[in-house]
Design brief:
By secondary structure, this protein is an alpha+beta fold. It has a domain of about 120 residues. Strands 1, 2, 3, 4, 5, 6, 7, 8 and 9 form a nine-stranded antiparallel β-sheet that branches. β4 and β5 form a beta hairpin. α28 packs antiparallel against α29 and α34 runs antiparallel to α35. The radius of gyration is 28 Å and the shape is globular.
Length: about 800
């Protein structure tokens, strides 16, 4: 299942987490999940949304809507509420487009399970995997699978729908409550010579039991939430929170004409001169005109070998239309209106570390939009349909010829440029500039950031590069030397943000200055600048007043959204005045991000006239979460909002609902436990954590939070074992290792504490808390030389920190004695 919404952990900003303290003296358990109102997706990873203003789309099946149009609606009402008419109606006039679309991946995105649609072998085929054998067979013309159900026992299930077509096909099974669930075993539809024509597990080498959210019957394989929005047209999830059931509907089962062009009844009325058709003359009854390429010519310069657009691209309608599904994002509004900004309906993920490498290359299942907006092509005015025929989805030309629409073949299709033998893999443009990464075991997808290979970044940052993608037996150093030999220098390309984002992830000494420079650099992609702004949140006073004013009026909604989140963290006292105007931003994601950030702000602390704006947008934020009322992440977000608003009863209710939907969802357990701590209900806090550990025994955050509870109860020996478990389960997490070291020291085991801090600092050499603790422990252990090295690094990172300077001075004085 192609997952557009993955669970997104709520992250307290790096550099802030470790400075939080609860009453035990240990770092407090942080909010473990910030659904990127996005996430989140998953995550990351999601959240979804509200009904605002006039309803533009019908919620009933297309057949009943057609009857309504004929029997109930006046011509004027049709003008206000366009309905979906179906691809067959569109094809009456647009025959060529219908022909191109038929057989495309969009048209085959989802189909009833028929002989014509099902590609998998259901002739009694047995598929053994991780101790379980599933059997695929036919019964009375139906496609069946015998596999483990929600009770862990074998049952027979009927396949209702196919999902996708190539290079793999998945299968949907109807379960109680209106759910469709995606089977975790898929059919490899590639030719046999390429390794296909076989059943395979989407999670190879992993035992997924019926208690796991990733089990095919679990919450993370639910079609209604995870998949439907992008694989069918005009989807309405129709989730009932009271009964926890779905009545999901769609206008057409696949990605049909109106998925991109919008409901077509007004256009049909205009074309057939029916009803109030004259009122549609200006736009022909269309909500969105995907005509950004009309009359546009790309002319290749003889001097450079590159093309320029005959006129600048005036909008991003087409790109943002595609971004609805071709991005890593979370839905925040269900009643989509074609033509409005993508940020009105979806929260697009930024360049998060779990999704992208520091240089923006794809890591997680990121899709195309977040990559393409990083590219020089995007900034020069290229649209999706410059390269892809939008109805068949095929490339405009085969192989390199699609690139040679804009780049002179005589310059670029030459060994003088690519230094490889003609027609070899190294001579294919996309192999170097759009390397692929394989997802879902068999599905290679190209990186649409269209970048110059950077083996120098592989050497310094550990990022991938296309050279070593082919020459896997060689080192990045070899690739770097080769590139320098070819070109006489190291080509850097368009994207110049890797070092800054990497420094921020590490907390490196120059990170703050590098982030500030990237935020201000208008030549760099907005998605990178927005990412830098989010990562700058822990650095108080990082932005000047002028820079802060610039980001709240930035042309990019992504940058304004990041400002709404980050400015209040950078300077809570003064940033309210800057952030409050974003409550009236034209784009919904910006408004509700500002509302979430300012939710705890008293009305008398807001700028005059904005208290009403905050109340309105908090309601809009709540409505956004309630669209995803079937997900634990949404209830977690609401719980955290109510904590901010000091409404503990409402917060408890939401967090309990999150755990009822998914008992394994650790962030809800951690935050509910912390709520109980704040309310003085420590016994309940411990109970929630222990219950959650039963459902999620490998989750480090639960062990860590339980350790804190033990400390608060005066049970420090018990706490030590839980801190040890957390550090073992998540060895790369600095917080867990640091706290485990503190607990070891407190237990009278300083040498073990020092060893643990050394381990943490090998992975994270700039972790402030670990550096301070290591310097202190080495000093107390009579090893001032080692203590001095850590203290110096601490001062290097925080030169204005008086406490760090005092520590360094004390250790230096001791060495001089």
């Amino acid at each position: 299942m192609t997952k557009k919404h993955k669970r997104n952990k709520k992250r307290t900003s790096a550099g802030t987490v470790e400075r939080l303290r609860d009453r035990s003296g240990y770092p407090a358990a942080p909010d473990q999940s910030r659904s990127s109102l996005v996430a989140a997706t998953i995550i990351l990873l999601g959240v979804v949304v509200i009904i605002v203003g006039i309803v533009f789309f019908w919620r009933r099946p297309v057949q009943s809507r057609r009857a309504d149009l004929a029997e109930q609606l006046s011509a004027q009402l049709i003008t206000q509420l366009p309905g979906f008419v179906g691809s067959e109606t569109c094809g009456e006039c647009h025959k060529q487009e219908l022909h191109l679309w038929t057989g495309s991946h969009h048209q085959l995105a989802m189909q009833p399970a028929t002989d014509a649609a099902v590609l998998g072998n259901f002739d009694g085929t047995r598929f053994p995997n991780q101790g379980l054998t599933s059997t695929f067979f036919r019964s009375g013309g139906r496609f069946m699978v015998r596999t483990d159900g929600p009770d862990g026992l074998l049952h027979d299930y009927q396949v209702q729908y196919t999902f996708g077509v190539s290079p793999l096909q998945q299968y949907l099974i109807r379960m109680p409550g209106g759910r469709l669930q995606s089977l975790g075993i898929a059919w490899d539809s590639r030719p046999r010579v390429l390794g296909g024509q076989r059943w395979f597990s989407l999670y190879p080498n992993t035992r997924i039991t019926y208690r796991d959210p990733l089990h095919w019957t679990g919450i993370d394989q639910n079609w209604n939430y995870m998949c439907a929005d992008c694989h069918s047209t005009n989807v309405r999830k129709n989730y009932d929170s009271r009964t926890r059931t779905y009545a999901t509907s769609y206008a057409e089962i696949d990605v049909a004409c109106e998925a991109c062009h919008g409901p077509g009844s007004n256009h049909v009325a205009w074309a057939k001169r029916q009803g109030n058709w004259k009122g549609f003359a200006a736009n022909q009854g269309l909500l969105i005109a995907l005509n950004e390429r009309r009359n546009v010519v790309w002319t290749i310069s003889a001097a450079t070998g590159n093309a320029h657009r005959s006129e600048p691209r005036a909008s991003e309608l087409e790109i943002q239309m595609c971004a609805r599904c071709h991005s890593r994002r979370a839905q925040i509004h269900e009643d989509y209106v074609h033509g409005q900004p993508v940020g009105d309906d979806y929260r697009v993920s930024l360049l998060d570390d779990d999704l992208y490498y520091p240089d923006g290359q794809i890591k997680g299942e990121d899709y195309e939009y977040g990559s393409f907006t990083q590219s020089k092509m995007f900034h020069q005015g290229v649209t999706c349909s410059d390269c892809h025929e939008p109805h068949s989805l095929k490339l405009r030309a085969e192989g390199n010829r699609v690139c040679f629409q804009c780049h002179a073949a005589q310059k670029y299709d030459s060994p003088r440029h690519h230094f490889h033998e003609a027609r070899s893999p190294g001579a294919i443009c996309a192999n170097c500039h759009m390397p692929s990464r394989t997802y879902m075991v068999v599905d290679p997808r190209r990186d649409h950031s269209i970048r110059i290979p950077r083996p120098d970044l592989s050497v310094s940052l550990g990022t991938p590069n296309a050279c070593n993608g082919c020459h896997a037996d060689k080192s990045p150093q070899w690739a770097l030397a080769t590139v320098r030999k070819w070109y006489g220098h190291t080509p850097r390309g368009f994207q110049e943000f890797a070092e800054s984002l990497n420094a921020a992830s590490l907390g490196a000494p120059r990170a703050a200055r590098m982030l500030a420079d990237l935020i201000a650099d208008q030549t760099q992609p907005a998605i990178a600048r927005a990412t830098a702004l989010e990562r700058a949140a822990p650095y108080a006073g990082l932005l000047t007043d002028a820079a802060s004013r610039d980001v709240i009026i930035d042309p990019s909604p992504l940058v304004r959204r990041a400002a709404a989140r980050s400015l209040p963290e950078m300077d809570p006292r003064t940033a309210v005045n800057l952030t409050a105007p974003l409550l009236s931003d034209q784009v919904r994601t910006v408004r509700i991000e500002a509302a979430e950030s300012l939710a705890a702000t008293p009305a008398n602390a807001l700028p005059a006239g904005t208290a009403g704006d905050l109340a309105r947008e908090v309601d809009e934020y709540i409505a956004a979460q309630n669209v995803d009322a079937d997900r634990s992440e949404a209830h977690l977000n609401l719980g955290l909002l109510f904590v901010k608003e000091q409404r503990p009863g409402k917060a408890e209710e939401q967090l309990q609902t999150a755990l009822a939907l998914d008992p394994s969802f650790a962030p809800a357990a951690v935050n509910l436990s912390d709520l109980y701590r704040a309310l003085g209900r420590e016994t309940d806090a411990e109970r929630v954590l222990r219950d959650s550990i039963v459902s999620n025994p490998g989750e480090a955050s639960l062990e860590y939070a339980l350790g804190l509870s033990m400390v608060r109860q005066g049970r420090k020996p018990d706490a030590l074992s839980h801190f040890a478990a957390a550090a073992k389960l998540a060895p790369a997490d600095t917080r867990f290792g640091y706290v485990y070291a503190l607990a070891l020291s407190d237990a009278g085991r300083p040498n073990q504490a020092i060893n643990e801090l050394d381990r943490v600092l090998k992975l994270h050499p700039y972790d402030l808390n670990s550096l301070e603790a290591a310097a202190d422990l080495y000093d107390k252990a009579g090893r001032p030389e080692k203590a001095l090295s850590y203290a110096r690094r601490l001062v290097e990172i925080t030169p204005d920190d008086v406490h760090a300077k005092d520590l360094l001075q004390r250790i230096s004085d001791q060495l001089r004695r």
